[in-house]
Amino acid sequence: MKKIHLGIFDIHTPNQMTQGLWTHPDNQTVRYKELSFWIELAQILERGKFDFMFFADSYGYPKNKRELAFREAVYTPSNDPMLLISALAAATKHLAFVTTASPSYEAPFANARRFSTLDHLTNGRIGWNVVATGGVSGAECFGRGAVLPHNERYDQAEEFMEVSYKLLEGSWEDDAVSADRESRLYADAGKVHIVRHKGNYFNVTASHASEPSIQRTPVLFQAGSSDRGRDFAAKHAEGVFLKAPTLESLKAQVEDIRRRAAAYGRGASEIKIFTGLSAIVGRTRVEAERKRDDYRRHSSREAALLTYENATGIDLAALDPDAPFADMNTEQGRTHTERYTKHSAKPQTARDVMDNFAEKEFRGITLCGTAEDIADRMQYWVEETGVDGFNLERYVLPGTHLDFVDLVVPELQKRGMFRQQYEESTLRERLFGKGATRLADSHPGSGYRRPSHERE
Ligand SMILES: Cc1cc2nc3c(=O)[nH]c(=O)nc-3n(C[C@H](O)[C@H](O)[C@H](O)COP(=O)(O)O)c2cc1C
User: Fold this and answer.
1) Do residues 50 and 8 touch, judged by C-beta distance below 8 A?
2) Disordered: where is this region (predicted)?
3) Residue 321 domain-assigned?
4) Which helix (H) or strand (E) is 197 found in, with range?
5) What is the distance in A from the centroid of ligand 1 to the CA of 78?
6) Which one of 6, 58, 131, 360 would you pick to mutate in the ligand 1 pocket, going by the greatest count of ligand atoms within 8 A of its CB?
7) What is the pLDDT of residues 203-227, one digit of tens each?
8) Does residue 355 lie within any of the structural domains?
9) CA 191 to ligand 1 center in whole angstroms
10) With a cut of 70, which residues of the chain have pLDDT below it?
11) Domain that holds residue 141
Protein backbone atom coordinates (compact mmCIF):
# COMPACT_ATOMS: atom_id res chain seq x y z
CA MET A 1 0.00 0.00 0.00
CA LYS A 2 1.51 3.33 -0.99
CA LYS A 3 1.90 5.91 1.75
CA ILE A 4 -0.40 8.89 1.28
CA HIS A 5 0.12 12.59 1.95
CA LEU A 6 -2.33 14.68 3.96
CA GLY A 7 -3.06 18.38 3.96
CA ILE A 8 -5.96 20.49 5.10
CA PHE A 9 -7.80 23.05 3.02
CA ASP A 10 -8.51 26.31 4.80
CA ILE A 11 -9.00 29.99 4.24
CA HIS A 12 -8.44 33.01 6.48
CA THR A 13 -12.11 33.84 6.92
CA PRO A 14 -14.93 32.91 9.32
CA ASN A 15 -16.72 30.82 6.71
CA GLN A 16 -15.82 28.16 4.18
CA MET A 17 -17.14 25.02 2.52
CA THR A 18 -20.68 24.38 3.84
CA GLN A 19 -22.18 27.86 3.75
CA GLY A 20 -24.06 28.71 6.91
CA LEU A 21 -22.09 26.30 9.09
CA TRP A 22 -20.24 29.20 10.67
CA THR A 23 -23.36 29.50 12.88
CA HIS A 24 -22.94 26.02 14.41
CA PRO A 25 -22.32 26.25 18.19
CA ASP A 26 -19.31 23.89 17.96
CA ASN A 27 -17.71 25.88 15.17
CA GLN A 28 -15.06 28.29 16.43
CA THR A 29 -14.25 29.85 13.05
CA VAL A 30 -15.60 33.21 14.19
CA ARG A 31 -12.26 33.29 16.07
CA TYR A 32 -10.44 33.46 12.70
CA LYS A 33 -8.89 36.82 13.69
CA GLU A 34 -7.12 35.28 16.69
CA LEU A 35 -3.64 33.87 16.23
CA SER A 36 -4.33 31.42 19.06
CA PHE A 37 -7.12 29.83 16.98
CA TRP A 38 -4.76 29.05 14.10
CA ILE A 39 -1.90 27.97 16.34
CA GLU A 40 -4.21 25.50 18.06
CA LEU A 41 -5.23 24.05 14.66
CA ALA A 42 -1.63 23.83 13.42
CA GLN A 43 -0.58 22.00 16.57
CA ILE A 44 -3.46 19.51 16.23
CA LEU A 45 -2.38 18.82 12.64
CA GLU A 46 1.24 18.42 13.61
CA ARG A 47 0.19 15.94 16.28
CA GLY A 48 -1.56 14.05 13.44
CA LYS A 49 1.68 14.15 11.33
CA PHE A 50 -0.04 16.05 8.52
CA ASP A 51 2.13 17.18 5.60
CA PHE A 52 0.81 20.72 5.32
CA MET A 53 -1.85 23.28 6.00
CA PHE A 54 -3.13 24.81 2.77
CA PHE A 55 -4.69 28.26 2.62
CA ALA A 56 -6.76 29.25 -0.38
CA ASP A 57 -7.14 32.97 -1.03
CA SER A 58 -8.83 35.39 -3.37
CA TYR A 59 -9.81 39.05 -3.60
CA GLY A 60 -13.24 40.61 -3.85
CA TYR A 61 -16.65 39.32 -2.86
CA PRO A 62 -20.00 38.74 -4.63
CA LYS A 63 -21.00 42.37 -5.19
CA ASN A 64 -24.29 41.77 -6.94
CA LYS A 65 -25.81 40.19 -3.80
CA ARG A 66 -24.08 42.38 -1.29
CA GLU A 67 -26.58 42.09 1.55
CA LEU A 68 -26.49 38.28 1.45
CA ALA A 69 -22.70 38.21 1.08
CA PHE A 70 -22.17 40.23 4.29
CA ARG A 71 -25.04 38.63 6.22
CA GLU A 72 -23.71 35.12 5.61
CA ALA A 73 -20.01 36.04 5.44
CA VAL A 74 -19.64 34.73 1.88
CA TYR A 75 -16.00 35.48 0.95
CA THR A 76 -16.09 38.48 3.20
CA PRO A 77 -14.48 39.45 5.55
CA SER A 78 -11.26 37.90 4.33
CA ASN A 79 -7.79 38.26 5.87
CA ASP A 80 -4.42 37.60 4.29
CA PRO A 81 -3.37 33.99 5.05
CA MET A 82 0.28 34.61 4.22
CA LEU A 83 0.64 36.74 7.33
CA LEU A 84 -0.27 33.79 9.55
CA ILE A 85 2.57 31.61 8.39
CA SER A 86 5.59 32.89 10.34
CA ALA A 87 3.64 32.63 13.55
CA LEU A 88 2.39 29.12 12.75
CA ALA A 89 5.89 28.04 11.79
CA ALA A 90 7.18 29.27 15.15
CA ALA A 91 4.53 27.20 16.96
CA THR A 92 5.34 23.99 15.03
CA LYS A 93 8.47 22.12 13.95
CA HIS A 94 7.49 19.98 10.99
CA LEU A 95 4.13 21.02 9.60
CA ALA A 96 4.47 22.80 6.24
CA PHE A 97 2.32 25.62 4.85
CA VAL A 98 0.99 26.18 1.35
CA THR A 99 -0.50 29.55 0.57
CA THR A 100 -2.07 31.14 -2.48
CA ALA A 101 -0.77 34.04 -4.56
CA SER A 102 -2.38 34.96 -7.85
CA PRO A 103 -0.38 35.87 -10.97
CA SER A 104 -3.48 37.81 -12.04
CA TYR A 105 -2.88 40.44 -9.33
CA GLU A 106 0.48 40.12 -7.63
CA ALA A 107 3.74 41.67 -8.78
CA PRO A 108 6.33 38.95 -9.48
CA PHE A 109 9.20 40.77 -7.77
CA ALA A 110 7.34 41.33 -4.49
CA ASN A 111 5.82 37.85 -4.62
CA ALA A 112 9.23 36.19 -5.04
CA ARG A 113 10.59 38.19 -2.11
CA ARG A 114 7.68 37.15 0.13
CA PHE A 115 8.08 33.46 -0.67
CA SER A 116 11.87 33.55 -0.26
CA THR A 117 11.39 35.25 3.10
CA LEU A 118 8.93 32.57 4.19
CA ASP A 119 11.19 29.80 2.91
CA HIS A 120 13.97 31.22 5.11
CA LEU A 121 11.75 31.74 8.15
CA THR A 122 10.11 28.31 7.94
CA ASN A 123 13.33 26.53 6.99
CA GLY A 124 11.87 25.17 3.78
CA ARG A 125 8.35 24.42 4.93
CA ILE A 126 6.58 26.53 2.32
CA GLY A 127 4.56 25.98 -0.87
CA TRP A 128 2.82 28.34 -3.29
CA ASN A 129 -0.61 27.65 -4.78
CA VAL A 130 -0.61 29.43 -8.14
CA VAL A 131 -4.11 30.46 -9.21
CA ALA A 132 -5.00 32.28 -12.42
CA THR A 133 -7.86 34.09 -10.71
CA GLY A 134 -10.96 35.12 -12.61
CA GLY A 135 -13.29 37.06 -10.27
CA VAL A 136 -14.66 40.37 -11.55
CA SER A 137 -14.81 42.09 -8.17
CA GLY A 138 -11.22 40.98 -7.54
CA ALA A 139 -10.08 42.78 -10.70
CA GLU A 140 -11.79 45.97 -9.52
CA CYS A 141 -9.82 45.88 -6.25
CA PHE A 142 -6.73 46.51 -8.35
CA GLY A 143 -8.22 49.19 -10.54
CA ARG A 144 -8.73 46.85 -13.47
CA GLY A 145 -12.13 47.27 -15.05
CA ALA A 146 -12.29 43.90 -16.71
CA VAL A 147 -10.81 40.58 -15.81
CA LEU A 148 -8.58 39.08 -18.53
CA PRO A 149 -10.25 36.34 -20.62
CA HIS A 150 -9.78 32.82 -19.25
CA ASN A 151 -6.98 31.56 -21.52
CA GLU A 152 -5.14 34.85 -21.46
CA ARG A 153 -4.98 34.63 -17.65
CA TYR A 154 -3.00 31.44 -18.15
CA ASP A 155 -0.68 33.22 -20.65
CA GLN A 156 -0.10 35.84 -17.98
CA ALA A 157 0.50 33.13 -15.35
CA GLU A 158 3.05 31.47 -17.67
CA GLU A 159 5.00 34.69 -17.91
CA PHE A 160 4.70 35.24 -14.15
CA MET A 161 6.33 31.85 -13.60
CA GLU A 162 9.14 32.67 -16.01
CA VAL A 163 9.97 35.89 -14.13
CA SER A 164 9.68 34.10 -10.80
CA TYR A 165 12.14 31.38 -11.86
CA LYS A 166 14.57 34.00 -13.13
CA LEU A 167 14.49 35.71 -9.74
CA LEU A 168 14.33 32.67 -7.47
CA GLU A 169 16.58 30.26 -9.35
CA GLY A 170 18.83 32.43 -11.46
CA SER A 171 19.66 35.69 -9.75
CA TRP A 172 21.91 34.64 -6.86
CA GLU A 173 24.56 31.98 -7.34
CA ASP A 174 24.72 29.35 -4.61
CA ASP A 175 27.99 30.69 -3.20
CA ALA A 176 27.21 34.41 -3.56
CA VAL A 177 26.89 34.86 0.22
CA SER A 178 29.85 34.50 2.56
CA ALA A 179 28.56 36.60 5.48
CA ASP A 180 32.20 36.73 6.61
CA ARG A 181 32.68 39.32 9.34
CA GLU A 182 36.46 39.22 9.24
CA SER A 183 36.88 39.94 5.57
CA ARG A 184 33.84 42.23 5.69
CA LEU A 185 32.27 40.38 2.77
CA TYR A 186 28.56 39.73 3.05
CA ALA A 187 27.81 38.95 -0.59
CA ASP A 188 29.84 39.00 -3.80
CA ALA A 189 28.06 41.34 -6.24
CA GLY A 190 29.67 39.46 -9.13
CA LYS A 191 27.64 36.42 -8.16
CA VAL A 192 24.32 38.25 -7.90
CA HIS A 193 22.88 38.70 -11.37
CA ILE A 194 20.40 41.25 -12.58
CA VAL A 195 17.26 39.85 -14.16
CA ARG A 196 16.20 41.87 -17.20
CA HIS A 197 12.75 40.72 -18.15
CA LYS A 198 10.63 42.52 -20.74
CA GLY A 199 7.43 40.70 -21.58
CA ASN A 200 3.79 41.13 -22.52
CA TYR A 201 2.61 41.47 -18.93
CA PHE A 202 5.63 42.12 -16.73
CA ASN A 203 8.81 44.15 -16.89
CA VAL A 204 11.42 43.57 -14.21
CA THR A 205 14.96 44.87 -14.01
CA ALA A 206 16.37 43.79 -10.68
CA SER A 207 18.41 41.26 -8.84
CA HIS A 208 16.30 39.18 -6.47
CA ALA A 209 15.92 40.90 -3.11
CA SER A 210 16.47 37.80 -1.00
CA GLU A 211 19.52 35.59 -0.79
CA PRO A 212 18.91 31.95 -1.77
CA SER A 213 16.70 30.00 0.59
CA ILE A 214 16.81 26.28 1.15
CA GLN A 215 14.18 25.37 -1.46
CA ARG A 216 14.70 28.50 -3.61
CA THR A 217 11.41 28.12 -5.48
CA PRO A 218 8.63 27.23 -3.01
CA VAL A 219 6.90 23.91 -3.74
CA LEU A 220 4.48 24.76 -6.55
CA PHE A 221 0.80 23.82 -6.32
CA GLN A 222 -2.04 24.44 -8.75
CA ALA A 223 -5.79 23.89 -8.64
CA GLY A 224 -7.45 24.93 -11.91
CA SER A 225 -8.73 21.89 -13.77
CA SER A 226 -9.87 23.41 -17.06
CA ASP A 227 -7.92 22.30 -20.12
CA ARG A 228 -5.49 25.21 -19.84
CA GLY A 229 -5.34 24.74 -16.07
CA ARG A 230 -4.29 21.13 -16.41
CA ASP A 231 -1.69 21.98 -18.98
CA PHE A 232 -0.27 24.63 -16.66
CA ALA A 233 -0.27 22.07 -13.83
CA ALA A 234 1.47 19.44 -15.96
CA LYS A 235 4.24 21.90 -16.78
CA HIS A 236 4.76 23.75 -13.49
CA ALA A 237 3.02 22.09 -10.56
CA GLU A 238 4.65 19.73 -8.12
CA GLY A 239 1.35 19.33 -6.26
CA VAL A 240 -2.07 19.46 -7.90
CA PHE A 241 -5.41 19.86 -6.16
CA LEU A 242 -8.07 18.07 -8.19
CA LYS A 243 -11.73 17.56 -7.50
CA ALA A 244 -14.10 15.57 -9.66
CA PRO A 245 -17.75 14.56 -9.45
CA THR A 246 -17.08 10.83 -9.95
CA LEU A 247 -14.31 8.35 -9.35
CA GLU A 248 -14.02 7.74 -13.09
CA SER A 249 -13.58 11.42 -13.90
CA LEU A 250 -11.01 11.87 -11.13
CA LYS A 251 -9.08 8.89 -12.47
CA ALA A 252 -9.25 10.31 -16.00
CA GLN A 253 -8.01 13.72 -14.78
CA VAL A 254 -5.14 12.14 -12.84
CA GLU A 255 -4.09 10.15 -15.91
CA ASP A 256 -4.45 13.18 -18.14
CA ILE A 257 -2.19 15.33 -15.94
CA ARG A 258 0.45 12.62 -15.72
CA ARG A 259 0.32 12.13 -19.51
CA ARG A 260 0.69 15.85 -20.12
CA ALA A 261 3.57 16.00 -17.61
CA ALA A 262 5.39 13.29 -19.54
CA ALA A 263 5.02 15.39 -22.69
CA TYR A 264 6.89 18.17 -20.82
CA GLY A 265 9.67 15.68 -20.02
CA ARG A 266 8.58 15.22 -16.40
CA GLY A 267 8.16 11.88 -14.64
CA ALA A 268 4.78 10.68 -13.33
CA SER A 269 6.12 10.69 -9.78
CA GLU A 270 7.19 14.34 -10.03
CA ILE A 271 3.62 15.52 -9.47
CA LYS A 272 1.69 14.66 -6.33
CA ILE A 273 -2.04 14.78 -6.84
CA PHE A 274 -4.39 15.61 -3.99
CA THR A 275 -8.14 15.46 -3.93
CA GLY A 276 -10.50 17.09 -1.45
CA LEU A 277 -11.83 14.95 1.39
CA SER A 278 -14.76 15.81 3.61
CA ALA A 279 -15.00 13.29 6.43
CA ILE A 280 -17.60 13.24 9.18
CA VAL A 281 -16.27 10.74 11.69
CA GLY A 282 -18.08 9.09 14.58
CA ARG A 283 -17.22 6.35 17.03
CA THR A 284 -20.26 4.62 15.51
CA ARG A 285 -22.03 5.14 12.17
CA VAL A 286 -25.10 6.41 14.00
CA GLU A 287 -23.03 9.06 15.76
CA ALA A 288 -21.48 10.17 12.43
CA GLU A 289 -24.88 10.35 10.72
CA ARG A 290 -26.28 12.37 13.60
CA LYS A 291 -23.46 14.88 13.17
CA ARG A 292 -24.09 15.06 9.42
CA ASP A 293 -27.80 15.79 9.94
CA ASP A 294 -26.98 18.41 12.53
CA TYR A 295 -24.53 20.13 10.14
CA ARG A 296 -27.17 20.12 7.37
CA ARG A 297 -29.59 22.00 9.64
CA HIS A 298 -27.11 24.88 9.85
CA SER A 299 -26.43 25.15 6.11
CA SER A 300 -27.63 28.00 3.90
CA ARG A 301 -28.80 27.16 0.37
CA GLU A 302 -28.95 30.79 -0.79
CA ALA A 303 -25.38 31.39 0.38
CA ALA A 304 -24.20 28.17 -1.28
CA LEU A 305 -25.70 29.26 -4.61
CA LEU A 306 -23.99 32.60 -4.24
CA THR A 307 -20.60 30.89 -3.99
CA TYR A 308 -21.39 29.11 -7.27
CA GLU A 309 -22.25 32.38 -8.92
CA ASN A 310 -19.09 33.95 -7.59
CA ALA A 311 -16.89 31.15 -8.96
CA THR A 312 -18.54 30.82 -12.36
CA GLY A 313 -20.55 33.97 -13.06
CA ILE A 314 -23.74 31.87 -13.29
CA ASP A 315 -26.80 32.56 -11.12
CA LEU A 316 -28.33 29.07 -11.05
CA ALA A 317 -31.61 30.29 -9.53
CA ALA A 318 -32.14 32.57 -12.55
CA LEU A 319 -32.01 29.67 -15.04
CA ASP A 320 -35.02 27.67 -16.22
CA PRO A 321 -34.79 24.73 -13.79
CA ASP A 322 -35.68 22.19 -16.51
CA ALA A 323 -33.27 23.54 -19.11
CA PRO A 324 -30.25 21.36 -19.89
CA PHE A 325 -27.04 22.56 -18.25
CA ALA A 326 -24.74 22.41 -21.26
CA ASP A 327 -22.28 24.78 -22.96
CA MET A 328 -22.22 26.90 -19.84
CA ASN A 329 -18.61 28.08 -19.96
CA THR A 330 -17.95 31.65 -18.96
CA GLU A 331 -14.76 33.67 -18.85
CA GLN A 332 -14.54 33.02 -15.10
CA GLY A 333 -13.24 29.75 -13.60
CA ARG A 334 -14.34 26.68 -15.56
CA THR A 335 -13.72 23.92 -13.03
CA HIS A 336 -17.24 24.19 -11.64
CA THR A 337 -19.08 24.48 -14.94
CA GLU A 338 -17.20 21.55 -16.45
CA ARG A 339 -17.90 19.50 -13.32
CA TYR A 340 -21.55 19.37 -14.48
CA THR A 341 -20.90 19.17 -18.22
CA LYS A 342 -17.68 17.56 -19.45
CA HIS A 343 -16.94 15.59 -16.26
CA SER A 344 -20.48 14.59 -15.35
CA ALA A 345 -21.61 10.96 -15.71
CA LYS A 346 -24.95 12.04 -17.27
CA PRO A 347 -26.55 15.21 -18.69
CA GLN A 348 -27.73 17.64 -16.00
CA THR A 349 -30.54 20.17 -15.83
CA ALA A 350 -30.16 23.50 -14.06
CA ARG A 351 -32.23 22.04 -11.18
CA ASP A 352 -29.88 19.03 -10.88
CA VAL A 353 -26.90 21.34 -10.73
CA MET A 354 -28.56 23.55 -8.13
CA ASP A 355 -29.51 20.61 -5.89
CA ASN A 356 -26.16 18.90 -6.21
CA PHE A 357 -24.18 22.08 -5.62
CA ALA A 358 -26.29 23.17 -2.63
CA GLU A 359 -25.54 19.78 -1.03
CA LYS A 360 -21.86 19.38 -1.96
CA GLU A 361 -20.69 22.93 -2.69
CA PHE A 362 -16.93 22.85 -3.35
CA ARG A 363 -16.32 19.70 -1.34
CA GLY A 364 -14.35 16.78 -2.73
CA ILE A 365 -15.06 13.17 -1.75
CA THR A 366 -17.70 13.27 0.98
CA LEU A 367 -17.62 10.47 3.56
CA CYS A 368 -19.49 9.79 6.78
CA GLY A 369 -18.87 6.86 9.14
CA THR A 370 -16.42 5.29 11.54
CA ALA A 371 -12.66 5.62 11.21
CA GLU A 372 -12.55 2.16 9.58
CA ASP A 373 -15.22 3.20 7.05
CA ILE A 374 -13.34 6.37 6.18
CA ALA A 375 -9.97 4.60 5.86
CA ASP A 376 -11.54 1.89 3.66
CA ARG A 377 -12.91 4.49 1.26
CA MET A 378 -9.66 6.50 1.22
CA GLN A 379 -7.75 3.35 0.38
CA TYR A 380 -10.22 2.53 -2.37
CA TRP A 381 -9.96 5.97 -3.98
CA VAL A 382 -6.16 5.87 -3.86
CA GLU A 383 -6.05 2.44 -5.44
CA GLU A 384 -8.64 3.22 -8.09
CA THR A 385 -7.67 6.74 -9.13
CA GLY A 386 -3.92 6.98 -8.47
CA VAL A 387 -4.19 10.12 -6.28
CA ASP A 388 -1.31 10.61 -3.86
CA GLY A 389 -3.17 12.22 -1.02
CA PHE A 390 -6.07 14.20 0.36
CA ASN A 391 -6.85 17.69 1.48
CA LEU A 392 -9.13 17.51 4.50
CA GLU A 393 -12.01 20.00 4.35
CA ARG A 394 -13.61 21.50 7.41
CA TYR A 395 -17.12 21.21 8.76
CA VAL A 396 -16.60 22.64 12.23
CA LEU A 397 -13.26 23.66 13.69
CA PRO A 398 -11.38 22.40 15.54
CA GLY A 399 -13.79 19.41 15.70
CA THR A 400 -13.25 18.16 12.13
CA HIS A 401 -9.47 18.12 12.57
CA LEU A 402 -9.59 16.63 16.06
CA ASP A 403 -11.86 13.76 14.93
CA PHE A 404 -9.62 13.00 11.98
CA VAL A 405 -6.37 13.16 13.95
CA ASP A 406 -7.65 11.15 16.91
CA LEU A 407 -9.70 8.54 15.06
CA VAL A 408 -8.76 8.26 11.36
CA VAL A 409 -4.99 8.89 11.44
CA PRO A 410 -4.29 5.92 13.80
CA GLU A 411 -6.36 3.71 11.50
CA LEU A 412 -4.37 4.87 8.44
CA GLN A 413 -1.12 4.31 10.33
CA LYS A 414 -2.24 0.81 11.35
CA ARG A 415 -2.75 0.00 7.66
CA GLY A 416 0.69 1.35 6.73
CA MET A 417 -0.95 4.09 4.65
CA PHE A 418 0.42 7.05 6.58
CA ARG A 419 3.64 8.03 8.35
CA GLN A 420 4.17 7.33 12.06
CA GLN A 421 6.82 10.05 12.40
CA TYR A 422 8.08 13.03 10.45
CA GLU A 423 11.39 12.37 8.75
CA GLU A 424 12.24 14.86 6.01
CA SER A 425 12.50 18.51 6.90
CA THR A 426 11.57 20.59 3.86
CA LEU A 427 8.18 20.34 2.19
CA ARG A 428 9.72 19.30 -1.13
CA GLU A 429 11.63 16.47 0.56
CA ARG A 430 8.48 15.36 2.35
CA LEU A 431 6.76 14.96 -0.99
CA PHE A 432 9.66 13.71 -3.10
CA GLY A 433 12.16 12.15 -0.69
CA LYS A 434 15.26 13.06 1.26
CA GLY A 435 17.66 15.32 -0.61
CA ALA A 436 15.02 16.68 -3.00
CA THR A 437 15.15 20.19 -1.57
CA ARG A 438 15.21 22.01 -4.92
CA LEU A 439 13.16 21.80 -8.11
CA ALA A 440 13.86 18.57 -10.00
CA ASP A 441 16.25 18.88 -12.94
CA SER A 442 13.39 17.99 -15.29
CA HIS A 443 11.25 20.89 -14.00
CA PRO A 444 11.15 23.91 -16.35
CA GLY A 445 12.18 26.23 -13.49
CA SER A 446 15.52 24.48 -13.14
CA GLY A 447 16.45 25.67 -16.64
CA TYR A 448 16.78 29.18 -15.22
CA ARG A 449 19.66 28.27 -12.94
CA ARG A 450 22.99 29.77 -13.83
CA PRO A 451 25.07 29.19 -15.82
CA SER A 452 22.64 27.51 -18.22
CA HIS A 453 20.61 30.66 -18.69
CA GLU A 454 21.83 34.11 -19.69
CA ARG A 455 19.94 36.90 -18.00
CA GLU A 456 22.02 40.03 -18.47
C1 LIG B 1 -8.22 22.64 -3.65
C2 LIG B 1 -8.53 23.86 -4.45
C3 LIG B 1 -8.01 25.07 -4.05
C4 LIG B 1 -8.31 26.24 -4.73
N5 LIG B 1 -7.79 27.40 -4.29
C6 LIG B 1 -8.15 28.55 -4.88
C7 LIG B 1 -7.68 29.79 -4.38
O8 LIG B 1 -6.95 29.82 -3.41
N9 LIG B 1 -8.08 30.93 -4.98
C10 LIG B 1 -8.91 30.90 -6.07
O11 LIG B 1 -9.25 31.96 -6.58
N12 LIG B 1 -9.36 29.74 -6.57
C13 LIG B 1 -8.99 28.57 -6.00
N14 LIG B 1 -9.45 27.38 -6.48
C15 LIG B 1 -10.29 27.37 -7.65
C16 LIG B 1 -9.54 27.18 -8.97
O17 LIG B 1 -8.17 27.28 -8.85
C18 LIG B 1 -10.12 28.20 -9.87
O19 LIG B 1 -11.23 27.56 -10.39
C20 LIG B 1 -9.21 28.76 -10.96
O21 LIG B 1 -9.11 30.14 -10.78
C22 LIG B 1 -9.83 28.64 -12.30
O23 LIG B 1 -9.11 27.86 -13.06
P24 LIG B 1 -9.81 26.98 -14.16
O25 LIG B 1 -10.58 27.86 -15.06
O26 LIG B 1 -8.64 26.33 -14.83
O27 LIG B 1 -10.71 26.03 -13.46
C28 LIG B 1 -9.16 26.20 -5.84
C29 LIG B 1 -9.69 24.97 -6.26
C30 LIG B 1 -9.38 23.81 -5.58
C31 LIG B 1 -9.94 22.50 -6.05
Assistant:
1) yes
2) 434-456
3) no
4) strand 195-198
5) 16
6) 131
7) 999 999 999 999 999 999 999 788 9
8) no
9) 38
10) 451-456
11) 5-293+365-448
